[in-house]
Structures are given as C-alpha cells and as structure tokens.
Amino acid sequence: MTLQQIRSAFREGRYKITAHARQQMLDREVFREDIGYVFDHGDIIHDVPNARPHPKVQIAAAMANGETLIVVVSKPRKSQIFRIVTVFYQDE
C-alpha cells in the first residue's frame, strides 16, 4: 500500500471512515479536509503489511496549528476501498 494509492483512493472517493475514526474526528475537531491535507503533504511513518485483519499504515503531517496529525489507513487485501481507521495527534 503506497501513499500514492491512498491519495488516489481518497480523491476518487474509494474510502470509508470507520465509526471509531468518525468519533475520533469529532472529539479532536479533525475534518475531512484535514485528512486530505495529511494524504497530500504527509509521509508514511509506520507500515504494517502483515497487520491483522488488514495491512495498515500510519501517515503523518504537520498541520497549520503546529501539531502533527496521524491518520491510520487499512486496506483489505481483496478490495479497492481503503478504510480510515483512526486519527490522532502525535502528542496524545
């Protein structure tokens, strides 16, 4: 799973935000645009290709407020739909 694949999927609408991620977004006041910014300007900081039940990566980017936002993305092996699993700030 590459950052380019994730960027493309996000731009094409081939993603789902899990209930957990939605709650974390509400709690942390993170918006869909913030996630897009992380995908466009961030880097993969942790890659777990053998994670269960699906491979996952952590993507991080410094935001305008000076904090680093991390987005965890997984992708089922037999699907083209990426899942945003959770979002959090690095210092949490």
Share in β-strands: 25-35%
Assign the structural class, choosing from mainly alpha, mainly beta, alpha/beta, alpha+beta, or little secondary structure. alpha+beta
Mean pLDDT reading = 93
Tell me roughly what share of residues is in helical segments.
Answer: 25-40%
Shape field: globular
What does this structure look like?
By secondary structure, the chain is an alpha+beta fold. It has a single domain, classed as YaeB-like fold (2-Layer Sandwich), CATH 3.30.2310. It has 3 helices and 5 strands, in the order αβααββββ. It has a 5-stranded mixed sheet with strand order 1-5-4-3-2.
Considering the chains and any ligands shown, give keywords for the structure:
alpha+beta, YaeB-like fold, 3 helices, globular
Give a summary of the structure in a few sentences.
This protein is an alpha+beta fold. The chain has helices at 3-12, 19-28, 32-41, and strands spanning 15-17, 43-48, 56-62, 68-74, 82-89. Strand 4 and strand 5 form a beta hairpin.
In terms of topology, how is this protein built?
Blueprint: H1 3-12, E1 15-17, H2 19-28, H3 32-41, E2 43-48, E3 56-62, E4 68-74, E5 82-89
Parallel strand pairs: 1-5
Antiparallel strand pairs: 2-3, 3-4, 4-5
